[in-house]
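This protein record is not my work; I was only asked to verify it. Would you go through it and say whether the fold makes sense for this chain? Here is the record exactly as it was handed to me.
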Amino acid sequence: MTVVLIPAFNAAATLPELLSRLFLVVPRESICVIDDGSTDGTGKTAESMRVRVLRHTTNRGKGAALKTGFQFLRTLTRYDAAVTMDADLQHVPEELPLFLEARFQRGAQLVIGARRRRNSTMPLHRRASNCITSFLVSARTGQDILDSQSGFRLIGSEVIESVDLEADGYELETELLLKAARKGFRIEFVPISTIYGGEQSHMIHWSTTKRFLRLLFKEY
């Protein structure tokens, strides 16, 4: 079974559309929303659509929400992989089969959605950040990392079970990538749409950048 993990903070406005579209792609019972201390009824919205909901009583960060999702997966009798995606409709549910194909037909163990940066709607500061961080992670791992910041990814159960994660913020996704590469897991990228609207980012850029740099140069 592949479980879809959706970390969500104040996402009640976008969750109904996201979940409705996901229901056309994967079984309802394979979807899990992690409500990261929302104050807008995100958890109740997800429950009303009859998907599993895990809750944080306070906002702890995207990385902490993902770790809660991974801990839940370890309680299952059997699962093959997790697909992580954001709750704000920046990720296209209809593209999820691309990840499953990479996993089940080509044997990839970590599949990351690579967004198109040139001639896209990605804001300039995001484009610059993505270019720089992807270059640095490529240098650190010795692999061509097309998009180090993408949160739309498939993570094989063997990766989840063997990689210990520490970060609580957005940098957890980079931590997972670095540690998976170090352990020799097969990483593959699939092209995904680049969608940016007027949504508010919950990323605190300077503090996230400092944590990323500490993580990048840390010895494992």
About this structure: The chain has one domain: 2-215.
